[in-house]
Every structure is written in C-alpha cells, then in structure tokens.
C-alpha cells in the first residue's frame, strides 16, 4: 500500500477520561484498504523530533479512529486540540493481522493494547468467526469498550488488576484460567502479556499472532529504533510488523 503524508482535519475528539481519548479524521484510505493491526504516525509539532505512532482502533468507510493514551508531552498536546484542527499524518503503515474465516478465535488485549483489536474483531465477525475477547485493564474506569465489542457479537471476558470489574487479574490470567481451545489467537499489549500468550499457544499448538509495542520513529524501517529480535535476526516493527507470528519473535 502506498504511504501518504498529508494534512488532515480532526473530525471529532471524544474524551473518555483525563487520560484517554478517541481521535477521528477522514482518511485517504477506506476500511477495505486498511488491515487491522496497521498504524498511522502523527506529527505532533516541530518541537518533537519524531512522529508518534498510533494503532488504528476502527475504520468506518473513510473515517479512521485512533485510541490515544496521554503518556507524555506529545500526546498531551493532542489532548489540547479541538475538532477542526489540522494535523499532519503519515498513513497507512505496517503489516496487519491475518483474517481467518469461520473459526473460533480469541483476542487477548492488555491496557492500550486493546486499540488494534476492535477493528480486528469487526473484520473477524464479518468473516463468520466466533470471537472471544479477553479485555484487561487496571481498573473499571479504563474499561471503555465493552458495549462496542458486544454489539459486534463478541463474547467478553473482562478483567481488572484491582478486581473492580470482572475477573481480578490480567487478561492472560483469565485466558489461561478459561483454558479454551481456539483455532487462532491474537494478542496486543505489554511484552509480558505477549510472552505469556505466545508460550501458552505454542504449548497447545494454536496459531497465534501478536502486535508488538515499540517506539517507531520513521515508519519506514530506516531509523532502526523499533528493532524486534526474531529467530531470523532483527526485524523492524514499523515495516516487518508490528504484527508477527508468535513463533517468530524472541520475547
């Protein structure tokens, strides 16, 4: 897919809390062009040396939604913007998830790692898959998208670190406890989550894809800032990933 760097008008900013928002803009690409797991990079301003990468949370026709967590100066600046503001975006980047058909699948997400899994769930449901979603966050105040997944026809397995909503523990703890047999597993979140999910699936011979979270500066594999160790040497998350076969990555 051809990459496009252009100025886009923010169509909507939905503030979910002081630390989380959904940013929407009209893309040059449609939902048929974009693969779940791909990402875009936003230029937050001349004071920042590199662009900031964000997984694509959802796409409806040409409207792209990004789920953003405030973690530093660049993301804080995005929180200060308003609808109608012009921002520079490089789209669409990376390699996405494999979309299977007619299977029983699990999505295991932790924290902001839920971001690419909603668009994935939408595409999987369209392909007649049964989708279980293990949705793990720190507390109930960060569990924003339960209804969204349920409207797609997914079965939700919510978990919180403090037990304030659903199972007390991580999404992997619940995934492991349920110990269901799946045809395919997808995961995104902290490295420990990916390591645990990958090991579980390898033991049970379940095909698994993981989306790694790395600092991706250029988006083209040139700056070498997002190197991921694999069994075939180092690969670039922004170009060769961020989605990899779980058997391939050395975590």
Description:
The protein has helices at residues 73-79, 115-126, 146-151, 171-178, 191-203; strands spanning 4-15, 20-26, 39-43, 52-60, 63-69, 86-93, 104-110, 130-137, 155-160, 167-168, 184-188, 208-211, 227-230, 233-236, 243-245. The mean pLDDT is 93. By secondary structure, it is an alpha/beta fold. It has 2 domains: 4-93, Elongation Factor Tu (Ef-tu), domain 3 (Beta Barrel), CATH 2.40.30; 104-245, Nucleotide-binding domain of ferredoxin-NADP reductase (FNR) module (Rossmann fold). The longest helix is centred in the C-terminal third of the chain and has 13 residues, at 191-203. It has a 7-stranded mixed beta sheet with strand order 10-9-8-7-11-12-15, with helices on both faces. A 6-stranded antiparallel beta barrel has the order 1-2-5-4-3-6. Strand 8, helix 3 (146-151) and strand 9 (155-160) form a beta-alpha-beta unit.
Describe the structure concisely for a colleague:
With 251 residues, the protein is of the alpha/beta class.
State the name of the first-level CATH class of the largest domain.
Alpha Beta
At CATH level 2, the architecture of the largest domain is 3-Layer(aba) Sandwich
Would you identify the regions where 5 or more consecutive residues have pLDDT less than 50?
none
Cα Rg: 17 Å
Shape: globular
């Amino acid at each position: 897919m051809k990459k496009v760097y252009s100025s886009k008008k923010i169509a909507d900013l939905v503030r979910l809390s002081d630390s989380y928002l959904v940013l929407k803009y009209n893309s040059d690409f449609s939902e048929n062009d974009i693969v779940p797991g791909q990402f875009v990079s936003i230029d937050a301003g001349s004071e920042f040396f590199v662009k900031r990468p964000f997984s694509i949370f959802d796409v409806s026709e040409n409207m792209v939604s990004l789920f953003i967590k405030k973690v530093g100066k660049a993301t804080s600046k995005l929180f200060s913007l308003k609808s109608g503001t012009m921002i520079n975006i490089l789209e669409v980047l990376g390699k996405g998830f494999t979309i299977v058909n007619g299977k029983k699948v699990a999505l295991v997400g932790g924290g902001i790692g839920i971001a690419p899994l909603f668009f994935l769930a939408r595409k999987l449901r369209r392909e007649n898959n049964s989708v279980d979603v293990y949705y793990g966050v720190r507390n109930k105040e960060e569990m924003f998208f339960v209804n969204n997944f349920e409207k797609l026809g997914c079965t939700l397995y919510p978990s919180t670190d403090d037990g304030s909503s659903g199972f007390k523990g991580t999404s992997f703890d619940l995934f492991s406890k349920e110990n269901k047999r799946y045809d395919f597993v997808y995961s995104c979140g902290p490295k420990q989550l990916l390591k645990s999910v990958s090991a579980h699936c390898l033991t049970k011979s379940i095909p698994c894809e993981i989306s790694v979270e790395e600092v991706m500066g250029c988006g083209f594999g040139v700056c070498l800032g997002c190197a991921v160790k694999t069994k075939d040497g180092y690969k670039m998350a922004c170009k060769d990933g961020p989605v990899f076969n779980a058997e391939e990555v050395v975590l």
